[in-house]
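Data card: per-record layout.
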Amino acid sequence: MQNHTLTNNDIEMLTLLEFAAQDSLQKYHAAMRQMKTRLETLDQDLKLKQSRNPIHHIESRMKSIQSIFEKLERYGKEQTLDAMEEHIMDIAGLRVIVSYVQDAYDILECLELQDDLKVVAVKDYIANPKPNGYRSLHLIVRIPVFFLKGRQDIPVEIQIRTIAMDFWASLEHDLKYKSVMAVEGVDVGPELKACSQIIEDVESRMQLLANALGDEPETEPHLIARARSLSLDALS
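The structure for this 236-residue chain is written out next.
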């Protein structure tokens, strides 16, 4: 392959493309930040009602322009910024790590109740794991973001999984990335799937125990409501 000397026109076009790409991606950055804030607010609200934080932590990530264009090529779409915004829904992504399986569904239900947020797709890999054993709840939501030119509803991918599911997925990713097919005679694929099934069984049993915590009287909301009705004179 011969080296190609860039002309002034080539350089100008590349500069314009980079500028346009960054302009597009900043919208997704803004949507990702706003969605993370909503989830953190939701977590604090649920804590008041459940006396615990259902969300253990939240991770965020943005796809690179290179990975976006590679995905467009796999989809058989034009590798343009317009095609990117039309066809790629997971440019901005959040991973929400929760304690129990029910927490994942509770968060989904709460998001569906937010009238300015649209849940456009749900893939339930918890109820229906992938063939390799992968389990997680995948959502695509559109969140309103306000810019100088007005409101835009920007898609954000949200993956909700338990701590155990995340541990499994991280190991599976590392083994896949390093192309490890066997470890000291162990066939990695079937072993990972068996581990996933064990985790699913343990989580079901832990959920039963966690449900028992929900049977306790909810005293905190009652106390909060009472405190809101008190006047300062009652404290003197």
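Known properties of this structure: DSSP finds seven helices and seven strands in the chain. The first strand starts at residue 55 and ends at 62.

See the next section for split statistics.
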